[in-house]
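Tutorial handout. Part one gives the primary structure; part two gives the three-dimensional structure as tokens.
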Amino acid sequence: CIPGDGWQIDSFGPVSVDSVVVDGQAMRVNRALIVKGDFRQLVYYWFPQRDRILTNEYWVKWFIFKDALMRNRTDGALVRLVTPVVGTRGMEAADRRLAEFTTAVVPALQAYFPR
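Part two.
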């Protein structure tokens, strides 16, 4: 889930966005730091599908297959949020920006996620 043209993943892993609660728990998203030369970007992404928030691409494929059999549906979604990482406190500021934006955008996007 990174742009092409030479961008590379520097670090990757799941994180919780504590301010977004899904099924009584903090929402989990994938967090990746991508780099290209001197440029760095922080990425949060996840796959909302049928009242599920998925972060594992293999589980996404499994549920697409299952939903195709059980519901005759193969649609899904990908949400990817990106922000630049700048300066000495860049990672901390970037994480804060993405967490705040995730908190603001998730309720607005709910109407557009496949159910």
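Part three, for discussion. The radius of gyration is 15 Å. Residues 44 and 80 are 6 Å apart (CA to CA).
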